[in-house]
Task: structure prediction
Amino acid sequence: MNKPLRRIAIFCGLLVLALLIRDNWLQYVQANALQENTNNRRIAIERYAKPRGDIIVDGKPITGSKKTSGSDFAYKRTYTNGEMWAPVTGYASQAFGATQLESIEDGILTGNDDRLFFRNTLDMLTGKQKQGGNVVTTLNAAAQKAAFEGLGNKKGAVAALDPKTGAILALASTPSYDPSTFAGNSVDSDTKAWAKLQKKNNPDDPMLNRALRQTYPPGSTFKVVTAAAAMEHGLYTDIDAKTDSPLPYTLPDTRTELKNEGNIPCKNATLREALRVSCNTVFGKIGADLGKDKMLETAEKFGFNSQQFVPVRSNASVFPKEMDKPQTALSSIGQFDTNATPLQMAMVASAVANDGRLMEPYMVDKLQAPSLDVIEQHEPKQMSQPLTEENAQKLQDMMKTVVQSGTGRNAQLSGATVGGKTGTAQNGINNSGNPYAWFISFAELGDGSRPVAVAVVVEDSDAARGDISGGGLAAPIARDVMKAIIDSKK
Amino acid sequence: MSSTTNAPTHHTSTIGAIGAPSRRNTELALLAFAVVIPVFAYANVGLAINDQVPAGLLGYGIGLGLLAGVGHLVVRKFAAYADPLLLPLATLLNGLGLVAIWRLDQSERLQQLAIDRFDVFSPSAPKQLLFSALGLALFVAVLIFLKDHRVLQRYTYISMAAALVLLLLPLVPGLGDNSFGAKIWIRIPGAGTIQPGEFAKIVIAIFFSGYLMVKRDALALASRRFMGLYLPRGRDLGPIITIWLVSLLILIFENDLGSSLLFFGMFVIMLYVATERTSWIVIGLLMSSAGAVGVASFASHVQARVDAWLDPFGCYADSGACEQIGQSIMSFGSGGVMGTGLGQGHSDLIGFAANSDFIFSTFGEELGLAGVMAMLLLYGLIIERGIRTSLAARDPFGKLFAVGLSGAFALQVFVVAGGVMGLIPLTGMTMPFLAAGGSSVIANWALIAILLRISDTARRPAPAPAANPDAEMTQVVRP
Result:
């Protein structure tokens, strides 16, 4: 009976071997995937096991942590002025997970980041509790407040940048939500608050980060891009020379007439004049003359057609890649399929303001260890140069004219020269939706520095279909944001 | 089966037979480790959870030490030549199981769960310590009263009847307790629940050994050769078909995939060893796959387990079975290579049955890959020592009995550990020695005692030949 016994011994050995192999598969090969499995409650338990690190604006935390009881979670997230800062922070909820900055920098905030490993090991040896680090943002509290209050109870968004570095100074979106209302995991309060904010229950979609994630037709503000393309590709070099622009202008290959808003002096208008009064005919023809490839090249240099990571993801703005001549003309005045996020249009204004150099937008200045040592410091990086310094300065000049004597007078500021561009975009089938009022601008101080570029979009039924509404609704918000930034620099 | 290894090397009148070393001192040294390791683990859990050495540490250490000491003394006295590894291995696993059960007793989540479900939480560790003591008492009793395992041959058919009764008891109305899905418990008023299947495992091994020892020649020789296989005669298929049907009955009526697989697997192993005919393995595999496929396509609870095994995260939100296995797998994964350390994991998220069926997941999370591999090797050692005992045994009954018990033990470990690790569908059995549950720990101690008894008989040197009075008389006295 010994031969089969030996075989049984081998068989039993194989059973144990199979278990060993399976265990290696689970605990070594698959370990990370299982640890990060969305069903793994340990992630949330760990995230709230200790006070979470904070998100800092202007040296002050805009987040906090509160001890809770009666659940798996020791602490819950709190937010100071949560509604105003929600587009910056995202949320961290015991029940509903985390998004945006709270999720992207989760490693630092919980203290689990690999870069904190040495410190954590040291803390473990000395018996100190593990702590989370801080995320220091580039935002400017005064500008954020101006943007949020300026938008008020209208639907819209604001993005403001420092043109020199790409630092995001304001990032507002309305209607907004207060992430503290569902930061816990109580079925009675948190789950209800969460449900109320969902798009299916709330058509206003308050949890949408409009400044980064919503694309709108940019309307006339896109003419700044078209003007840059005209100069960059040598179509027109002198902004004060007459352009070859007939009025009325028929879209190429069609019998459709492209109309201006009202009776404005657009026949053979100079670039400066055409931008001042916002001539559809002039810029439409520039687009058609340049052709889609050249327009696309310039638009993409400004950041169109690519996502931005600031580090929160921003949706890609769209400049269509496939279109015929009349469509190119329409796209060049911000219609047809052209779509842009508020961040994208702020990048356009900032590239012009920074003498043609587009800086990568970012909102995390540095990451701090619990001891406040800097773990990572953002270095400003140039993303592209959509236009030469000379052309940029010409465009600055043109935009200043718009604010001085054109559609953007509402953005005028004492103590600074403002350059800007208004826009109104129609929305919906047969323009049935609320139009969007746009304004993009930059401010120049007496010393020649341009510390801020801003884009504002307001979606409102009050916005008349005239170009003036961009100046009427959006420009004052842009002005207040710029003023807040200039004042805080003093 | 030669006894040359045990034979005295030479005879003189003054020195008796020199046998294999008894290895009792090796066993004692190993036992010291088997007691000290769990004591350290216990302290470790206390420090991790409450920041202090648990108050019961001394009591626990003394308790475990006493169990081990008594076990050792009884083995020294009544089974001096028994295998030296089995007792320390069982003690170590039992000790670690107690630590894990105590650790899960400290979980607020499980306490809350018990209160929600039963209105009251009662810690399992003290009960388990009591059961371990009972288990050791049975161990001692077996070693003292079972002087020779061959005595059990006499009870072959009584064992069969007893095993059937034990297996069917949970189906008796009023006795059965199926509050947890499977009908494998009986409730004895005032004494809690008993899982008779755990005891049936041993009793049925007695029946199989006795029966196969008698019938092995008929089963092995009376066969026709067909396609390289020796096919048994139709009437010889009777026993295997009977066992197969009983297994299927257990599966269908008691809802217990594990026991069913265990009994049938054990029978096939023993049949193969008894007859040395590979054809039995083939027939056994065919029959178990047919049974498994047949039942799986009719019984919904088996289907649910198979679905949960195939893709636990696909149905995680909808099915309790999926969530349970998903939680268990995540528990293992979250432990990683080194584990979180005792007391610092979240295996209590598994919830219900965390300290019984799923106790291995706690080790997975808190001791990591390293710890689990070590524990699997401990089980592997028990199994291989058991088969080694079978190899060394000199009588066919002992051989079959030992391999039956070891094979059943191996299948149980594989089915439980494989189930909680998602290697095979979950079956709902308990990890020997680790899991909370009186029947399991008591029955397994008895199993170890029987293996010790068989190995003692196998390794005990043959008694010295009676001194030949003639030789004495004619011995030449050297000048």
